[in-house]
Design a protein that fits this description.
Strand order of the largest sheet: 1-2
Number of domains: 1
Distance between the termini: 34 Å
Number of strands: 2
Order of helices and strands: EHEH
Largest sheet: 2 strands, parallel
Strand content: 15-25%
Number of helices: 2
Helix content: 25-40%
Shape: elongated
């Protein structure tokens, strides 16, 4: 079973969904998160590395989010 989560803040919703699916008989569950929300006042392990990896400009379809160059 695959559960798609739109954003991951603390993980409670995805974990609850996974527990429900497992209790209903699923052999295993994979959670795929589309985005990770970082609050300005949030302090967690890896926060600094995550903040450094975030883009510094607005998202646009013209720029590749991985390379930072024009998309082909």
């Amino acid at each position: 079973m695959v559960i798609f989560e739109d954003t991951w803040v603390q993980g409670g919703h995805a974990q609850s969904a996974a527990a429900t699916v497992l209790m209903s008989g699923a052999a295993e569950v994979t959670i795929v998160t589309i985005a990770r929300r970082v609050r300005n006042n949030q302090r967690s392990p890896g926060e600094e590395a995550l903040r450094n990896a975030l883009p510094t400009s607005e998202y646009t379809l013209d720029i590749c989010p991985v390379t930072g160059r024009s998309c082909p």
